[in-house]
């Protein structure tokens, strides 16, 4: 330190020790990096204030000139201007030049200029925001040497002052553009007397080394004139900084043709002055990571060590630098108060978040209140109306036009006033403006106007009703989305119970809203406002909530389904059904279908969502059960609310299919792993990618976090045969576990995190110690699969997955069709469950109660087993394709399933366990008899049921057969029935008493089809071979129809004892069933003939084939009349129209074509409007077709049922079955009743209304 500076310190030591408080002084010096934390601690250890001051001065005396300057600036900044004056003449001289100080790269020249100009020091905790600092510098450079104004504006506490001071710490800027220096004046909210004092002090400061001491100016005009002369003569090319300007009249006192930088909340503050003008807008919040960095610096912790409340604090205040700094300073003094300050912020207790030394207002509420109080009285009421705006929502101008009953231009003028004063933010979206409040402003307004909120909500609802009357907004109106999203919110806020019920229980509103935004938000509203909606009775609300929850996967897709038709599928006691029925009866031009046998159906799932556009490979609950994460073939990670399906996050996470995802134990992170060989960690709330791990060399199949909190560990396994352990606080893999000889499919931490279990394609399950990464145990699962000779099976045993019991003493392992339960202590097999040999287990999960196990099976279903009693307790059907994953919620009350059908279903465990697993096979026969619908169906594989479709009652049920039933047929007179079995037996049954009249062991393979002749004395059947058997069961005589070279696909009876058959060999034959001779032989196609139809006049037949063509043939000439080309997939079915003019064909792509029989020309192409990406037009194959008697309508089956206008090819109606893969549709002669069964075994008897 210079001798002169040292002497000034020693000379004034007594005065300094007597008055200064060291705490905030040291903060400044630490931020200037001239004082260390150890030195600060030495000062703090002193007992009295005077001793602490003496110790600080002793330390400064041992340091260099920078310490003196820093001490001087700290005195000025903390209000010790009289003490700073004592040291002023001792400030060491600095010469212009690029000589760097050891501090932070700032030159000594810069420090001196800023010190002399009164520019504030960096705050104790400072985090750089380079983009904004550079923007301020750029605008200052734009001034050049011309007079002008740079306005740095933004809302309270966004960091305007700190950023402006930081921009001035630039040698090139100061020397090149402002060699006359900078002069900082903190103005604030002033009256004329206060402004005069500020001007007098500034003039005095600028004249301090003048030889002539002048008296202070007596008024503002004199001060303005003196300031002009000083700036012109003594400080040319200098910069004047006016911090915190509120009123434009204040600026006139400084309008002296000089260069001025202003910080203000009011963007329009410079409108009253002349000259060049530039603006810099300071964003209201720091990025999340920056916010955490500020907190970490205040509390002297690493970001990774901060408690969870830190994330919540930054999120809650939207990164406001003011709030983070206020709370950070408080936490430095009270490090255990994280939860307390978070609650104060959440509860809007702004008064309790009080001052840190460097801010001008005592508490957070004062900082915000002063801006509002500064508004003109006529604007305050308009601003008060904004108290009820929803958070994080940009509100279109039109909404406020309706609220205030004003023209757009008037409203925009009012709102611009708020925007100019940083009380509101504006987003220009195309031609229209959208406005929004910062969360803190909204919280402040809400708290301030707490007693008026209900009245304000009521006002906006009444204004909406006045404007729209009985209509609803249409999508072309800019305010449409706001009302659909928030009208219910305002009604609930106003406690308008009747209006809210009328709105939420209206199918019209539901239809309009779900078409625009899907069902999830509505479900959320039913949950959110249940206390208001349920004041009379919860039943109606539950009806609507269940309706949306169970149809969400349909309502979120295009083309949008007919909501009235969906409503008609609800229980008849449901309010949804009753409203739908009223709509259906009143609408003309649309036909609807009643599901007349729906009474027996129980919905077992609680919610169905369709978050992905492709197969969903994995899904899991967060520990608090509030959220679900899912991933799949569309390469996205989705996070949504478990209650409503409302999407919280959608991330395009990987470059290939995502195979697994997992929440961390605290729910903060989600891990994903993919076929792209990468593992990624995401912030589960912001969607920010925290880290990417790329050490696996093959696709990564599974990832799972440890179960405990405190340390984030992740286990991953891959086709590269390795399991890897990752510590999220480290960049690289912590441990690699080597020992498997093939792909590792699955891995799981034990509940106590001591072990990791892994399952591999090499047929083993291995147990690893987490701490050491050593292999503890390996089980050869292949040993548990023996053939008839008790020798190990030669087939590869792929171990799919494993699941731990809650206490970690058992582990469940899945391979092929077996569940194996092992004890961890002895590694003995405790028990096993063997599923049907027709199925493969895809996934399993232990329920937290340690009794139930959920098992996902390859045939689209899920089963629940009690592992103690080894009994199946539930059979869950609902998915339309393979189920990849099943997972219980942490409390076991729910479980979810995810599937290739793009849906995730959430099931209630108790509800499912009370259900029965009765299902029908898709092979059935139907007789329409005197207005009655009689159905013969195969029930639970081994029984036949005769069902009255009108009453949904079982007329007859046979005893269980020794072999599963594969097909059946019903006599038109309802006296006889017949069925074929998987063991090749065919039987004839008397319906009166269910007695088997005749039985024949006809085939060695499963019987495919059986049909009676018109006299019911003969039964015709085929199995999966090339022979048709014609069995006169009364005479017990059999004729064999041999001639096809490959298996028969199907057959149909013609008149005069003739039969038409078609085969995999591509041929169609006409037989005489009496003689067994072939009468005609048609070599129809190069591929399998999939279906045939006969024209109503009996002169022609059509054939369709796997070769993608259909053909029309003449029986008379045995020649092809037309070859119909154009289908892009196998043509699976065909039907002639009753008027003998048209042929309809359907293919495996879901498309239907209608042809002119006479010319073979394509007349219509039946395809719905635009469909979602990856969605088949018909939800799958078209399997059956039937024309109406007048040939004007066509019904088709496939993924669901559709009705078409034959003349236009347009879709008239769609009936979505619960399952899919409808094999056939049986239609009554009057085209009013339709019968089918889906792949879940649910029977549908539909009647046209």
UniProtKB/TrEMBL annotation:
Keywords: Apoptosis, ATP-binding, Cytoplasm, Hydrolase, Nucleotide-binding, Protease, Repeat, WD repeat
Phosphoprotein is among the record's keywords: no
Family matches, as Pfam families: APAF1_C, CARD, NB-ARC, WD40, WHD_APAF1
Protein name: Apoptotic protease-activating factor 1
Record-linked PANTHER family: APOPTOTIC PROTEASE-ACTIVATING FACTOR 1
Role description: Oligomeric Apaf-1 mediates the cytochrome c-dependent autocatalytic activation of pro-caspase-9 (Apaf-3), leading to the activation of caspase-3 and apoptosis. This activation requires ATP.
Entry superkingdom: Eukaryota
GO molecular function: ADP binding; ATP binding; peptidase activity
Subunit structure: Monomer. Oligomerizes upon binding of cytochrome c and dATP.
Residue ranges occupied by any CARD domain in the UniProt entry: 1-90
Any one of the GO BP annotations: apoptotic signaling pathway
Compartment(s): Cytoplasm
WD repeats: 609-650, 651-692, 693-736, 737-778, 834-875, 876-908, 1000-1032, 1041-1081, 1082-1123, 1124-1165
Broad class of the protein's primary localization: cytoplasm
Organism field: Nestor notabilis (Kea)
One Gene Ontology cellular component: apoptosome
